[in-house]
Amino acid sequence: MTSTLLDTNTPNAQPTPSYADIQSIVADDFEIMDKQVFGSLNSKVQLVMSVSQHVINAGGKRMRPLITLLCARMFDDKPSEKAMHLAAITEMLHTATLVHDDVIDESGQRRGKPTANATWDNATAVLVGDYLIARAFNLLVGFQSLPLLQVFSDGTCDIAEGEVLQLQHQHNPEATETDYLNIIDGKTSRLFMMATQGAAILQDKTEYMAALGDFGQHFGNAFQIIDDVLDYSGDSEVMGKNLGDDLAEGKPTLPTIKALELLKDQNHEGYEQLRIAVQTGKTPNAEQLIELVRSSGALDYCKQRALEETRLAQQALGTLPDNRYRQGLYQLTELASARLV
Description:
Structural class: mainly alpha
Mean pLDDT: 89
Strand content: under 5%
Shape: globular
Radius of gyration: 20 Å
Number of strands: 2
Distance between the termini: 32 Å
Largest sheet: 2 strands, antiparallel
Low-confidence stretches: 1-12, 236-240
Number of helices: 17
Oligomer: single chain
């Protein structure tokens, strides 16, 4: 099949649609799915329900379930209750990972709203995150599909391992780009892969599993690299956190890793300042450190890596059925890349 998606350099190229435009392609499915995220909570414990509803209400754009819905429609253009249900489960898992992230990072806010750990406490947040994961698998069993359960159980293990790997390399100035890619493959990209491959299993289109896996992995990689670049160059209000927060937390992100590599050869004093900041998490001179990363050339390198991953994701789409839902997936990759401009 010849793909028409990848001709992005034509003079008459259309402007990138907004997220709302892409979501509108599956508007009815999305609305039902969004209600199911809440409707699937059935704990007998009121505190579990209160905290779960709090964190789901604070949720973002629901990109991962949107991907599931687009994939399902791409294979069979009619409403699928199973696909909507699976999309809701995917969002439930994503929410659980965010709850645990907030505890690990000691975050007080997410997207401008108080986190569960700040509103209640760490123990409550962790246990409710555990409940959301357990409930997600409780619901997955209802599909009576061992292949689907396998993809989600393997993927959830990879997500947990990615988080632990990030913790292992926290405050480690010797972390490498390979370490970083191993981390984001688990903590970010794996859920994108689950969102796509789960839809293929439901629609009995397993011949597309490899292409969907490639799309999910590369799009997830691009998405995370872009997020990490914006920690040094984005808008604090839009992002809901201060610039340089990842550095203060000692997270091994690609901009910091590359900046250390470049500064080691070109600016030894700057290298030592950044290395000590990563190692200790002490950033009283945060603006100076951010400028060190910016001036090192690390962000230009990271932007190129993000665009490479975006292109690989787009190429993976070329073997999938050519319709407006595939176009929606392509537009999501363009929308993510546009954040770098």
